[in-house]
Amino acid sequence: MTSIMRQILWGLTLGIILFAALTLSYLLVFPIARLSDLWNRELMDIPFIIFSFSISVVLGIAFGIASGTYWRRQFQAVDSWLFELEEGQQPEVKQNQAFAEILSISKRVEKLYKQISEKAMLSQKLATEKAEEQESRIQEIISQERNRLARELHDSVSQQLFAASMMMSAINETKAPSEDREAKQLKMVEEMIHQSQLEMRALLLHLRPVALKGKCLQEGIEELLIELKQKVTMNIKWKVEPFPLDKGVEDHLFRILQESVSNTLRHSKAEQLEVLLIKRDDKVIMRVVDDGLGFKVEETKAGSYGLQNMHERAGEIGGTLKIVSVENKGTRLEVKVPILVVAGEKHD
Length: 348
Known about the structure:
With 348 residues, the protein is α+β, with helices and mostly antiparallel strands. The protein is built from 9 helices and 7 strands; from the N terminus they run ααββααααβαββααββ.
């Protein structure tokens, strides 16, 4: 039941009470012998009983509509404050509220926004400190392990593929031309080995640290997408605006982008990928859109470590992550992070 309907019912009840009060007052002032006299006595050529009942009901309904409309506006204002608070925006609270209860709610909403902003700012600072501390400590270990793995693959699998390729080339060159069927099969094997060599080279190329490592977020995104564009047939487009960000925010956004692009490559079978990074109204917006198979977000979210990890990373920097996916139409991932600056501090 809406607030207007509820107030109309209260107004109707009030009107009936008013009708009873008017009738009782009339009987006290003008006593009657029989109740039927209320019908016979007229006011403005209308039987008194009908006139008083109509006036009472109309006044009650009018009061209910007026009060219901007023309270609906008050509830809509509170709902608007909470929506803006949910979106990470500062609620536009008016202090000239007529009722102390609404004024108290407005003050609490403002206080809650300040607390959320302070916590988001603290989370971003902690994320920055954590990223800077861990990057120097972990990056070297990751780099050494990747280099070791790349070296072992190069010294073993890559060399064996090269040797197999040379042997197949020699066999094909010395093979008698009369054995066409067998020669074609050997040629196919040679081509498969050659393709495996190319894939191994691509794998070795990817065995490198994936963090930003001295680059800003914009540079890291462009480098990642340029390299990806050279290795896949997917049509990749991007728009990246230059603006400064804290190290922790950059690191988390880059990791979210990597996870999103990885999901697109592995699952979506998309032909087009678009990446957007912009700053609007003190908010960083990163959007990743593909035209792939799509999926059911609610069913996948519960059991997907990747999606859960992206939501957690967005939350750690005070941001929000929304995913909209339509089957056979594509998927759209959007991250919004507020840029919170302490009074007196500015980005260089």
